[in-house]
Write a structure and sequence with these properties.
The chain is built from eight helices and ten strands. By secondary structure, the chain is α/β, with parallel strands linked by helices. It has a single domain, classed as Rossmann fold, CATH 3.40.50.300. Strands 6-7-8-3-9-10 form a six-stranded mixed β-sheet, sandwiched between helices. Strands 2-1-4-5 form a four-stranded antiparallel β-sheet, with helices on one face. Helix 6 links the parallel strand 7 and strand 8. It is globular and about 50 Å long. The relative contact order is 0.20. The mean pLDDT is 90.
């Protein structure tokens, strides 16, 4: 895989259910993403957007097709190596925040450090991540003590804790008001432009897709609009 190509997907198929209840979700998706891109994946509910993101992040398996992310061929990558990749090099931001209520904001942010042996000051890095999202004074508060917008910023700080090369966001502004959502979008854009983080965002919101450098639309599990960035001769081969 080219050093500039951070994601390479070929002919992905995915279905859920069995027998007569089996439902195709992805039907032959091929996609290339270059390092430093800001890609938005749009489409109606059930179009396969989140499934595609989960497969890229190694949270789900395709039934058929090939997945290469950050020079890792998933078909040849062990579960332990895949878990390390997710922890170290891929950040995840979800609509539901997925914070642990019994941990402080700082504890949530530094959670990725608990999955490995670190040779840096974990708390200092966690505080730095909180500072970057404007929550320096919230380190010892718990999720139930802060607003929805603040929870999303804590989730972003956690996703960025290990300084990943790739950030996967699933409807990151879906639970936020207009002003807070605008702030989150601005922060993502700055991460991409200033830090070079490759950003993939699943969204149904035009305010998010407008800020992307490339937009693709999924419909019934296939790309129906936008450039998949796959060379025609390679896609047909």
């Amino acid at each position: 895989m080219s050093e500039d190509r951070i994601i390479r997907l070929r002919d992905l198929h995915k279905s859920y259910g069995i027998g007569a209840a089996k439902t195709p979700v992805l039907r032959g998706v091929s996609l290339d993403v270059e390092r430093g891109e800001r890609l938005a994946i749009i489409g109606q509910s059930g179009s396969g957007k989140s499934t595609l993101l989960n497969i890229i992040g190694g949270l789900d398996d395709a039934d058929k097709g090939s997945v290469e992310v950050l020079a890792h061929d998933y078909s040849k990558t062990s579960e332990s190596a895949l878990a390390k990749l997710r922890n170290r090099e891929i950040g995840f931001v979800f609509q539901a925040f997925n914070l642990l209520e019994h941990l402080t904001c700082l504890g949530n942010v530094t959670l990725p450090a608990s999955f490995g042996t670190e040779d840096y000051d974990v708390e200092a890095r966690g505080r730095d991540a909180l500072e970057r999202v404007g929550l320096t004074d919230f380190a010892h508060r718990r999720p139930f003590e802060i607003s929805g917008g603040q929870k999303q910023r804590v989730a972003i700080a956690r996703a960025m804790f290990n300084r990943p090369a790739l950030l996967l966001c699933d409807e990151p502004t879906g639970n936020l008001d207009t002003e807070t959502g605008r702030d989150v979008i601005k922060f993502f854009t700055e991460l991409n432009e200033k830090d070079g983080v490759t950003l993939l965002t699943v969204t149904h919101e035009e305010r998010v897709s407008r800020t992307a450098t490339r937009v693709i639309r999924l419909e019934d599990g296939v790309i129906v609009e936008g450039d998949s960035n796959v060379a025609a001769e390679e896609a047909s081969g």
